[in-house]
């Protein structure tokens, strides 16, 4: 019988113990690998998981420490990687058949950084195909389940990364967020998820979906752990010309300074689109608590945010249709057999891509095609400017904006899968910050009466991730409500 | 122009994406529903508004020295090819 997981065992404490040689990295890795062996098959959190490789990486960390090498605070910390992050020699499929068996010849920038830091990889997590989806049901392989209720979705597209941290199969995880793909699954699984400012983290080696929106972000069980992982991956990388040196590490101790005098804005106008009453109640509870801690709560307006979904579902598919042109069956991945080149392209793509990806490629191609460009794509880019200005205005008055991450708690598998528009509407609160390029954090704020996680979101000024984490840290300390452990991580839960 | 099966197939040709005739009806329905939803953008006055293609624009494009660096990924990259001939990717005959 393995020891019950400690929900408060942080990446920070694991890293410290490993660096101080109080625990070996192998010892830590074994605990997580054994836990994953029990729960991962039931949750379907991973597309590629190799316990032996994880233990080998941990042994290497122990050897490096033994030889006197100074390693980062993440040394020996088990970290899961979304399967759209390129890992040298480890399968990277983006949840797609078209990349089945693909072994990247290089590491993504963030993967390189984590290897150097001495992190230990638990595996590649399941996701919606090419990160297109909000439930992980669009994975070409299998859907992932929510650790809190196996009949429900973990959110998406980074559903595997969120679920694996919630189930304590990994201490931390990386995902990617284009319209909410880190924040929404973090909310659904009851963990922290940060979408950094656009440009804060290099996208080199992140398989591109919508390049003007994509950003890699951390999942963690505490605000401090989010900062720890963010600090390791942020900053300028010359291989991504949109990555910026303005992104600097966050001082962890600054997160302990409370919220006295801080101004937190609530976008009441946007909330009128409809929010589950239990989520509204949670928002009120957190607002009261932060006000009690000395924050000033004020109303802000984001008048164009309600147009965000329409804007996003033109811009993201347009960029995707262009980015995904590279999957042509020539250089890697799946190829359909044909004697004719044009037929080979069309057939490879028709068979290799799943429904949602094909739908978005068609939508994006249509929106960019002659005669429609001005009415759709160009207009969407102009509305994007209006959404950005709303945030600029609101954040002149407020230090951060507080709103729900999602309008509802996690929904059931199969509930929205046949209605793409209903699935898209679930992104109403996460997409605005994506269009604005602003940093946004989802943090666990409580649970519903039926014990499903609720997440709230903080949006801030560019490169001010620290303020968001400081507010979330204040709530975390005062809420007296640790994350808790879903029954499945204790070896219990129905199957 | 309303979306119909013919438009779907025209767009599919542009996207080099094979769409089976059995899928046409579903795609027509889904794309119509999404496009009618995005019609709401026509309600906004965007005259004089600059488009945002990327945030962080206006910052100077970063430059670096143009140096020769080893990459050494040729063999590994070629190993991923669905079909190859020595150091070449092989495709169906074109000419």
TrEMBL record, chain A:
An annotated GO cellular component = glutamyl-tRNA(Gln) amidotransferase complex
Active-site positions on this chain: 82, 157, 181
Instruction: Name the Gene3D superfamilies for this protein.
Output: Amidase signature (AS) domain
User: Which Pfam families does this one have?
Assistant: Amidase
Q: Where is the Amidase domain?
A: 27-469
- The organism's superkingdom is given as Bacteria
Key word Transcription regulation present in the record?
no
UniProt catalytic activity: L-glutamyl-tRNA(Gln) + L-glutamine + ATP + H2O = L-glutaminyl-tRNA(Gln) + L-glutamate + ADP + phosphate + H(+)
Q: Which SUPFAM superfamilies match?
A: Amidase signature (AS) enzymes (SSF75304)
Q: Does the keyword Mitochondrion apply?
A: no
Q: Which GO terms describe its biological process?
A: translation
What is this enzyme's EC? 6.3.5.7
Single GO molecular function: transferase activity
- Keywords, A to Z? ATP-binding, Ligase, Nucleotide-binding, Protein biosynthesis, Transferase
Role, per record: Allows the formation of correctly charged Gln-tRNA(Gln) through the transamidation of misacylated Glu-tRNA(Gln) in organisms which lack glutaminyl-tRNA synthetase. The reaction takes place in the presence of glutamine and ATP through an activated gamma-phospho-Glu-tRNA(Gln).
Return the similarity comment.
Belongs to the amidase family. GatA subfamily.
- Describe the subunit structure: Heterotrimer of A, B and C subunits.
Designated name of the protein: Glutamyl-tRNA(Gln) amidotransferase subunit A
To which species is this protein native? Eiseniibacteriota bacterium
From TrEMBL, chain B:
Return the annotated region ranges for Disordered: 48-82
GO molecular function (one): ATP binding
Q: Which reaction does it catalyse?
A: L-aspartyl-tRNA(Asn) + L-glutamine + ATP + H2O = L-asparaginyl-tRNA(Asn) + L-glutamate + ADP + phosphate + 2 H(+); L-glutamyl-tRNA(Gln) + L-glutamine + ATP + H2O = L-glutaminyl-tRNA(Gln) + L-glutamate + ADP + phosphate + H(+)
The name under which this protein is listed is: Aspartyl/glutamyl-tRNA(Asn/Gln) amidotransferase subunit C
User: Where does the record place Basic and acidic residues bias?
Assistant: 62-82
Keyword terms, alphabetized? ATP-binding, Ligase, Nucleotide-binding, Protein biosynthesis, Transferase
GO process terms (BP) = glutaminyl-tRNAGln biosynthesis via transamidation; regulation of translational fidelity; translation
Point out the gene that encodes the protein.
gatC
Alphabetized Gene3D superfamilies for the sequence: Glu-tRNAGln amidotransferase C subunit, N-terminal domain
Pfam families for this protein: GatC
In short, the EC number is 6.3.5.-
The regions listed as transmembrane in this protein's record are none
Q: What role does this protein play?
A: Allows the formation of correctly charged Asn-tRNA(Asn) or Gln-tRNA(Gln) through the transamidation of misacylated Asp-tRNA(Asn) or Glu-tRNA(Gln) in organisms which lack either or both of asparaginyl-tRNA or glutaminyl-tRNA synthetases. The reaction takes place in the presence of glutamine and ATP through an activated phospho-Asp-tRNA(Asn) or phospho-Glu-tRNA(Gln).
């Amino acid at each position: 019988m393995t020891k019950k997981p400690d929900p408060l065992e942080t990446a920070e404490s694991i890293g410290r113990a490993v660096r101080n040689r109080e625990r070996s990295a192998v010892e830590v890795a074994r605990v997580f690998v054994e836990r994953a062996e029990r729960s991962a098959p039931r949750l379907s959190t991973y597309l590629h998981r190799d316990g032996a490789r994880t233990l080998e990486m941990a042994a290497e960390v122990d050897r490096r420490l033994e030889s006197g090498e100074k390693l980062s605070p993440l040394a020996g910390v088990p970290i899961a990687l979304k399967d759209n992050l390129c890992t040298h020699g480890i399968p990277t499929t983006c949840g797609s058949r078209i990349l089945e068996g693909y072994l990247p010849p290089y590491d993504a920038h963030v993967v390189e950084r984590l290897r150097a830091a001495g992190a230990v990889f638990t595996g590649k997590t399941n996701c919606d195909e090419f990160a297109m989806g909000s439930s992980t049901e669009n994975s070409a392989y299998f859907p992932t389940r929510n650790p809190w209720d196996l009949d429900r979705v973990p959110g998406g597209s980074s559903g595997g990364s969120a679920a694996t941290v919630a189930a304590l199969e990994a201490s931390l995880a990386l995902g990617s967020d284009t319209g909410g793909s880190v924040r929404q699954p973090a909310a659904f699984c009851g963990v922290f998820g940060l979408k950094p400012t656009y440009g804060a983290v290099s996208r080199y080696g992140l398989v591109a979906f919508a390049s003007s929106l994509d950003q890699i972000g951390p999942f963690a069980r505490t605000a401090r752990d989010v900062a720890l992982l963010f600090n390791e991956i942020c900053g300028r990388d010359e291989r991504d010309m949109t990555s910026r040196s303005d992104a600097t590490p966050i001082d962890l101790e600054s997160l302990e300074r409370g919220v006295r005098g801080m101004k937190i804005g609530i976008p009441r106008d946007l909330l009128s689109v409809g929010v589950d009453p239990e989520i509204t109640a949670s928002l009120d509870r957190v607002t009261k608590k932060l006000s009690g801690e000395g924050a000033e709560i004020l109303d802000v307006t984001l008048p164009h945010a309600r147009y965000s979904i329409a804007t996003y579902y033109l811009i993201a598919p347009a960029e995707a249709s262009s980015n995904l042109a590279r999957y042509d069956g020539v250089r890697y991945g799946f190829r359909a057999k044909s004697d004719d080149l044009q037929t080979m392209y069309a057939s490879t793509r028709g068979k290799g891509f799943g429904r949602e990806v094909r739908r978005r490629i068609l939508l994006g191609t249509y929106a960019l095609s002659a005669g429609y460009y001005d009415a759709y794509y160009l207009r969407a880019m102009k509305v994007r400017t209006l959404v950005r200005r709303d945030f600029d205005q609101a954040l002149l008055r407020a230090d951060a904006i507080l709103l729900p991450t999602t309008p509802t708690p996690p929904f059931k598998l199969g509930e929205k899968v046949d209605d793409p528009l209903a699935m898209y509407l679930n992104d109403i609160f996460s997409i605005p910050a994506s269009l604005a390029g602003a940093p946004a954090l989802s943090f666990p704020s409580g649970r519903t009466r039926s014990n499903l996680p609720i997440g709230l979101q903080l949006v801030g000024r560019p490169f001010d991730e620290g303020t968001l984490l400081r507010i979330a840290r204040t709530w975390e300390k005062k809420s007296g409500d640790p994350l808790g452990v879903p029954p499945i991580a204790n070896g219990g839960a129905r199957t | 122009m309303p979306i119909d099966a013919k438009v779907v197939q025209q767009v599919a040709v542009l996207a080099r994406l094979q769409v089976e005739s059995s899928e046409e009806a579903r795609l027509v329905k889904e794309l119509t529903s999404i496009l009618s939803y995005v019609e709401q953008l026509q309600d906004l006055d965007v005259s004089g508004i600059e488009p945002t293609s990327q945030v962080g624009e206006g910052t100077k494009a970063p430059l670096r020295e143009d140096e020769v660096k080893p990459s050494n990924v040729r063999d590994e990259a070629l190993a991923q090819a669905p079909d190859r001939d020595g150091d070449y990717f092989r495709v169906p005959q074109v000419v």
